[in-house]
């Protein structure tokens, strides 16, 4: 049986990230149009390219290729009324609600989606990939990558994982999901 190889890539930086705001459907901070296709040479063969539906993920996916499939399960967490709000403002105006949300994965004081619901959505999506051998590249959000890692590692450390823009992790399914840490080729070799 051929394994499923999943590369999860976080979208490129946005102004909301730079300003420590909860995301909206904002564009990338970089000139993504002139960089289209610039990362496609990094992957061998022809992996299946997936993207979350938001503008920032679709623009990032275009760095890897133009033939992408939009997958609703990869969408960002619904932050409800906190969309676009600065974290500093929440620390000042709603410190109890923010703290509650950070420690209670079932809580959603913002009226949106809880961390538990995000993890359940990601686990259901990962299950659909188990019968799809080959390489899949999925452009998504920090919350989705954190949810996948939390599930695969059987961890409760969701809030202890930082995901930087354009960072990537690899997961592999061959009977069970495993975190795969690829090595870096020594200089001068490919």
UniProtKB/TrEMBL annotation:
<dbReference type="InterPro" id="IPR013078">
    <property type="entry name" value="His_Pase_superF_clade-1"/>
</dbReference>
<dbReference type="Pfam" id="PF00300">
    <property type="entry name" value="His_Phos_1"/>
</dbReference>
<protein>
    <submittedName>
        <fullName>Phosphoglycerate mutase</fullName>
    </submittedName>
</protein>
<dbReference type="InterPro" id="IPR029033">
    <property type="entry name" value="His_PPase_superfam"/>
</dbReference>
